[in-house]
Amino acid sequence: MVTRDEVAREAGTSTAVVSYVINNGPRPVSAAARKRVLDAVAKLDYRPNELARSLSSASSSVIGLIVPDVTNAYCGELALAVENSALARNHTLLLGNAMHDDERQARHLQTFLAQQVQGIVFIGSTYGDEMFRPETKRVLQGSKTPLVFLDRSTTEFGATSVLVDNRGGAYAATSHLLEHGHTSIAGFAGSSGLSSVRERRDGWADALIARGLDPADQQTFESAFDRYDAFAVARVMFANGNWPRAIFSHSDEQSIGIFYAAAQAGIRVPEDLALVSFDGIKEAAIVNPGLTTARQPIARVGELAVDQLLAAKAGTPSELRQEMLPVTLEIRHSCGCH
Amino acid sequence: MVTRDEVAREAGTSTAVVSYVINNGPRPVSAAARKRVLDAVAKLDYRPNELARSLSSASSSVIGLIVPDVTNAYCGELALAVENSALARNHTLLLGNAMHDDERQARHLQTFLAQQVQGIVFIGSTYGDEMFRPETKRVLQGSKTPLVFLDRSTTEFGATSVLVDNRGGAYAATSHLLEHGHTSIAGFAGSSGLSSVRERRDGWADALIARGLDPADQQTFESAFDRYDAFAVARVMFANGNWPRAIFSHSDEQSIGIFYAAAQAGIRVPEDLALVSFDGIKEAAIVNPGLTTARQPIARVGELAVDQLLAAKAGTPSELRQEMLPVTLEIRHSCGCH
DNA sequence: TTGAAAGCGCTAACAA
DNA sequence: TTGTTAGCGCTTTCAA
After folding, report:
1. Structure confidence by residue, pLDDT tens digits, A210-245
2. Tell me: the pLDDT tens digits for A127-142?
């Protein structure tokens, strides 16, 4: 392994100068010296040891990302968006799947902290109504590592969050179904406890109320934010003779589970059941029928997450904190359009 | 931040002793001293800096994982399997999505190397018939970092691989379709250049030949290993009046894309089109109809990948290298059964 | 503009 | 069984 010392020797300079040119600072370097160093670097194929750099500079180019489960299409797309954004800023991702297990989440968290990550991005982290169990909270409280929550508004632990207009999106989606003439719209919600679920439920209720309908009169269902659990819940739902004719589902993943259950039960979408949902994952465009959904700006969310993290580390009291991103209703055919 | 020095002071021992108890070696420590250290650690809530440990010990608890695209269900499940396995051995994952872009892949690779990862696991890495572009090869050649290829047999760069019985699985899947009485079976292949694609194509051909059928007489299609590209290819396929009545598709992801295209074209599975595929992702069980597929032991693949990596680092000339894992035909309804 | 040198937090060889 | 100490590869202060 080639080290900085060898480069310095080859270039005939001190090791400090090598650092100055590699880091482009903090001291100026003469053009001649810079060239000699660069030549030596090329000749020896020198690659700085990031570990040593981080240790010495007390800063790292690694960002931790904790997701519930990458296997989930929405999480996967978000993780990819975060990676794209991290890459653009010369950072890498340490990934942890929490798998809806708070012990596993805590473990990832501690590992990331021990690895001296630059910051940690959390996606949809919640256990019960609390975000973390007490032990985890203590760890977080004692750390100065920047935290960013996606889709979860909180300023605990000095965290920042990237928010999307859950309530507005749910309102738009539900209203669209109402405009199709439906007079009752079931709510197929994500796991309670999540603020996004509360907000989407509120948007759905708002839309009903705006039409003089009572949310309390509607059927409601609940499943985890994934196609498998939604599939299981939907099967039970369809087994009941009285299944709803219109549904606002809290996520595309859940909608896909509902689609599968409907297909199995011989129920046609949108003829027998109209469906709209939330997220706007890629798959919404190719499922049959195309899924009408309130689309989140996923790429933008990933971008802001990394921006906020780096701003927090830099100590910049970013105006980005708690920004609320817009959600757009993407109309396809599951709602009955066409 | 609490350091080892503070722990030593609190425990009234030397810093070496603190290291010995934390690392459980390499020197023995008296029970009394151990207790004092442990108490100090607990009292101060000390957490070792992994960066410093790695730098000093020239070994790391981080493993790099390069996948084509986590957004792909198969990749996601494999990534999760690798994480599970890494977690069980107290390691963490640095994740990189190559996105079918060799420059991006090379970048991840270099970053991982700079981060001094313990080793790198590659999933389905191929560009053209080569695995890497020349520049990347040079980097790899110059590195002593253990490499593990999933589903790609090679011993270049001193790498190890975890193989599955692609040919046998494809043979079993195709044969099953043949037993249903089909006299021609189209091949819906993954991207050429991948060894797994070659092997699955061979297995399909073997089965046809065993029945006296000529593979050259069959229709063949090709798409990337994902539902989106398969969807696009399948749409064109169905637009042609002469679409096949039985297909062996190289992956479940592709089968799902075919399902979507079929649904859109009003083609029923399995009545109008019988389908079998490969991989055995979770979703195969809930799609409609259930997907008959040659299932890979995904969890076991992830386990072996990490085992081989750590064995390689330890210098253990592992007997695990190049092990070939069995594939099981999982019969559901897409083939026409029931 | 450059160089010498003191760390960053930890491991482990060596001496006791 | 314990302590001292020399690094690991790099950053950055301080003096030149």
Report:
1. 999 999 999 999 999 999 999 999 999 999 989 999
2. 555 678 887 888 888 8
Assess contact for B40 and B7: CB atoms under 8 A.
yes
The rounded Cα A235 to chain-centroid distance in angstroms is 28
How many of the other CB atoms lie within 10 Å of CB of A58?
9
Q: What is the mean pLDDT of residues A171-191?
A: 97
Question: Which nucleotides of strand C lie within 7 A of protein CB?
Answer: 1-5, 7-14
* Among B173, B174, B170, residue whose Cα is nearest residue B198: B170
Q: Are A152 and A124 in contact (CB under 8 A)?
A: yes
Q: How far apart are CA A112 and CA A104, in angstroms?
A: 12
Min Cα distance B52 → chain A (Å) is 6
How far is the C-alpha of B281 from the C-alpha of B278, rounded, in Å? 9
Q: Are A208 and A174 in contact (CB under 8 A)?
A: yes
pLDDT digits (tens, 9 = 90+) for B3-35: 999 999 999 999 999 999 999 979 999 999 999
Which amino acid is located at B70 in the chain? Answer: V
Q: B226-230: long-range contacts (C-beta < 8 A, 24 or more apart)?
A: B226/B69, B226/B72, B226/B253, B226/B254, B226/B257, B227/A283, B227/A286, B227/B253, B227/B254, B227/B256, B227/B257, B227/B260, B228/A282, B228/A286, B228/B257, B229/B254, B229/B257, B230/B188, B230/B254, B230/B255, B230/B256, B230/B257, B230/B258, B230/B261
Whether B51 contacts chain A with CB within 8 A:
yes
- Residue B293's DSSP bridge partners are B277, B330
**Residue carrying the six token digits 């590195």:** B143
Burial of B127 (0-12, 13-18, 19+ CB in 10 A): middle
Unique residue bearing structure tokens 């035909």: B329
Look at residue A291 and give its three-state secondary structure: coil
Q: Is the peptide bond prior to A48 cis by the omega test (within 30 degrees of 0)?
A: no
The single residue listed with the structure tokens 């090598």 is: A18
Q: How far apart are CA A101 and CA A331, in angstroms?
A: 35
Q: Is the peptide bond before B317 cis (omega within 30 degrees of 0)?
A: no
CA-nearest of B63, B84, B49, B118 to A117 is: B49
Q: How far is the CA of A234 from the C1' of C6 (A)?
A: 66
Residue A266 corresponds to which amino acid?
G
Contact B244, B185 (CB under 8 A): yes
Binary contact (B227, A283; C-beta < 8 A): yes
Q: Which of B108, B113, B283 sits opposite A47 (nearest CB)?
A: B113
Looking at the DSSP bridge assignments, the partners of residue B258 are none
Please indicate whether, in this complex, the C-beta atoms of A71 and B93 are within 8 angstroms of each other.
no
Supply the pTM of this predicted model.
0.96
